Amino acid sequence: MSKHAKRGRQPWRIAEPYRTRFRMVGVFALIAVSLLIPGYFGKVVVYLTGDRVAARVHNCWSTSYRGNSTFYCNGTWQLRDGTQGSGLLHGVAQRYPEGAELAVRATSDTAITDSLRWPVDFGIGCAAFALLMWLAYRFARRIRSRRASAE
User: Fold this and answer.
1) Which of 37, 66, 83, 85 qualifies as a cystine partner to 79, CB 3.0-4.6 A?
2) How far is CA 133 from the centre of its chain?
3) What residues does 112 pair with on adjacent strands?
4) pLDDT along the chain (151 residues), means of 10
């Protein structure tokens, strides 16, 4: 006879609090990943609608926190229609010398690096949000079915 049978418990009930904690951690992780959507939406719009141009770097700097460095560069670019743009070059992964040219996708006021990172991260955020909505739907159906069976 197992120790669980002696106590009158079912062995699968012991793991229930751990399953609940695991589910909660999963839900919070999905919420965190879903927060990519508002942060990346504007950049994805620029990626999809902006011109592919070369931006000239004016200056770069970095900030460091706990060993992780983040790089920033300012630059100028010219769109196909001749419109000049200047400002922060989003998505720079390293420090560039002054005068270097970077491939960017740009509008008149925003430039982002020409990388698939923007739509991929946005897609991951949308998938996480869709999964959250599906889980909420399943949870609501489970509650309704339990209330109906209790009546």
Assistant:
1) 83
2) 17
3) 90, 105
4) 53 62 83 85 90 93 84 93 92 88 92 90 90 88 79 68
